[in-house]
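Data availability (excerpt). The following record was deposited with the supplementary files.
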Amino acid sequence: MPTITLAMTIKATPAMDDFLIRAAIGGIGVAAVTGPLGAFVVWRRMAYFGDALAHSALLGVALGLLIGSNTNVSIIAVCIAVALLLVALQRQRYLASDTVLGILAHGTLSLGLVVVALQGSVRVDLFALLFGDVLAMTVSDLYWIYGGGVVALALLLWLWRPLLAVTVHEDLARVEGVNVVAVQLGFMVVIALVIAVAIKIVGILLLTSLLVIPAAAARRVSSTPEMMAILAALIGTVSVIGGLSGSLQWDTPAGPSVVLAAVVLFALVMLLPAGRRT
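Predicted structure:
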């Protein structure tokens, strides 16, 4: 009997190591993308905008299952459509921007839940969608995360200077010849792509925190935009590793544990002397 138990333990250990390694690799890949993008989200005060797009991701999942398409593609399509709708609605003067964001965020999330509920023949793990399921990471998920992440980073690097100019002073950037509308649309595409990439890690409800918290912590000690982007990615990486370690140690949900680790790092960074803020 002890021999059988020992053999089972030896066989189980590599499998356990494999899923932890995949979770860590996937989380690091997401942190590398959300850090630099989160810097712009913080600079442009777009946390609620990102939250609205993240909430709409559930509608993308639901529609993808309904029509039988790739859910990642449907998430990107719905996020871009919602982003365009948000931009159009923010130009009206009847409702404030935060009101419009709240209506669309909760409206798309609720519609997604209803569409999922109506598909009785399809089983969906709502907890994993809402709060992430990084420990269920597969090799195909890693391909998607790193493939989509490389595309998102490439687009962000291409948009870096004009986006920075628009962020600093939109009217001045327009005078200098920057196509503000094209830059903003490109930025929305990057956000939509990153949401589709990161949803597996922390889920729909916690996704914005991975964009905002590491970037907010990095801003405290950064003197240049580039330094802030790099530090945000590093803080996000440490948050992923710390969150996964805590999840394994105390048997807590992995996604929320990653976010909590990011909050702890933010609190520690806030105790440091502030640098010349970006």
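Summary of structural features: Residues 46 and 100 are 13 Å apart (CA to CA).
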